[in-house]
Amino acid sequence: MLRKLTIFDLKVILYYTGKIIFGLALTMIIPLAIALIYKEFDSALDFALGMSVSIIFGLVCMRLMKTNKSPNLFQSMTIAALTWIFACLFSSIPFYLSGHFQSYLDVLFDLMSGFTTTGYSLIQDLDHVSNALNMWRHLIHYIGGQGIVVMALSFLIKNSGGAFQLMVGEAKDEPLEPSITKTAQNIWIISLVCLFMGTAMAAIAAYYDGLAWDRSILHGSWMFMSAWSTGGFGPCTQNLLFYHSYAFEIILCIFMMMGSINFSLHYIVWKGKPKELLKDIEIKSLVVTLSITTMLVAWGLSSTGIFTNLNAVLRRGIVLVVSGHTGTGQMTVYAKQLVHSWHPLAYMGICIAMMLGGSAASTAGSFKALRIGIFFKGLIHETKRLILPESAVFKMTFHHIKDQIIESGMVKMAGLIILCYCFIYLFGAVVGVACGYPLSQATFESISAGANVGLTMGVVSPSMPAILKITYIITMWLGRLEFLSIFVLIGSVGLAIGQAFKGGRK
């Protein structure tokens, strides 16, 4: 029997959603300050208005729907999915007022791309965007990568029975500490420490590459947030190509890889157990898949003769593999080069890398290394069971933080999520082909959107059909929250409509 949606459910959902949006509004202080420092008064007004509207919404929800009850799993899933929609709506105000978008749909596209750390952008005249708006674009990456709900649990919501459910709703279900609030805080502590360290390293590289100190710090922070959150936004049209710096690319690659690793593994390393990295199934899976896709791309590029030396293959090909596999989406070649110059083998390598993704409970998207490892271990287990005598007794284990026994439910869930991702890749490709794009480009773009990567072959642009923009918005959202919380939200809306319809008939 289906669960009924009650007034109490709505009260809890709106209270916590309002609280999270209130917290998100406070982060607009940072781009507002940047606008005032650089005397970008139009942008300052945009952010002041956006922050005011968001704060009012948050306070109204918190006051009218005030409750001391912790959200249950059903409510938490709905809160997580709904929060991301409201976050896009309220964060869109300074975006829309900036005048850099053709339509409000383009604004929502960029916001969903930013929060889901995809990195697709429909912004126009990016090279002349204000410092404040660029700061907000990259902050959205940073917040979305760590998780909007995780941010709220760190700073706004006290530890409660529903805290863990809230994190589950945002696809981060591995507690680092017995206290879920402490877990969320540790995630942010790790991220903030890396922010200062990464910004410093990138800023030094940018300075020696020719940027002024203040520009170096800004660009260093923006590109770090993009790399660490496996996002893909850049402050310039040329993206990573703008910097022409080997050192800059190496630094960002390091943080791309770090961002794609499970926060639990980061925490364990911080606790003084670096050997855990050598034993963990996710790291082993990442090493194997990254090696295979790297070889495919290197082979494909070498066979074309476009890149005539190892340095060019590394900088234009291998960095792109890392960018695709980690879900970052920083472009090291132009979109037209991918379409017209790349060997099919290299193209296939990038597609596979994007589909595989990074670690679970990280900022990366798609299949995830943990699911791939569990799925293939499960296949090996089933194969052994069929080959060996019926009397044979054996168990299949894997190591992730600790030794764990593979259960059939784990394999089934891993397979189900992988199947869901494959479905949205196929769906996006079909819509792309229906809109008149070649199959190869439509498939590439669909995988990139659903896997929250952001690499493009030129399909994503302000001129693409509205139906394709909406399709990518949905697939980016689904891919980031990994389906379950969104399914619950859809179910909640369906229940509400069904109940209203029944009430009307009476």
Mind explaining what this structure looks like?
The chain contains 22 helices and two strands. It is mainly alpha-helical. The protein has a domain at 7-259. Strands 1-2 form a two-stranded antiparallel sheet. Helix 15 (310-325) runs parallel beside helix 17 (344-356). The longest helix has 29 residues, at 180-208.
Going across the major beta sheet, what is the strand order? 1-2
CA-CA gap between termini: 21 Å
Residue stretches low in confidence (pLDDT < 50, at least 5 long) are none
Say how many strands there are: 2
Largest sheet composition:
2 strands, antiparallel
Q: From the alpha-carbon coordinates, what is the Rg to the nearest angstrom?
A: 23 Å
Query: What's the average pLDDT?
Result: 84
Report the total helices: 22
List keywords for this structure.
506 residues; mainly alpha; globular; 22 helices; 69% helix; two-stranded antiparallel ribbon
Question: What is the gist of this entry?
Answer:
The protein has 506 residues and is mainly alpha-helical. It has a domain of 253 residues. The chain contains 22 helices and two strands.
SSE layout and pairing:
Layout: H1 7-26, H2 29-37, H3 41-64, H4 73-97, H5 104-115, H6 131-146, H7 148-155, H8 163-169, H9 180-208, H10 213-228, H11 246-259, H12 263-270, H13 276-279, H14 281-304, H15 310-325, H16 335-340, H17 344-356, H18 369-387, E1 397-400, E2 402-405, H19 408-434, H20 439-450, H21 466-481, H22 484-505
Antiparallel strand pairs: 1-2
Helix pairs in contact: 1-3, 1-4, 1-7, 2-3, 2-6, 3-4, 4-5, 4-8, 4-22, 5-21, 6-10, 7-9, 9-10, 9-11, 10-11, 11-15, 14-15, 14-17, 14-18, 15-17, 18-19, 19-20, 19-21
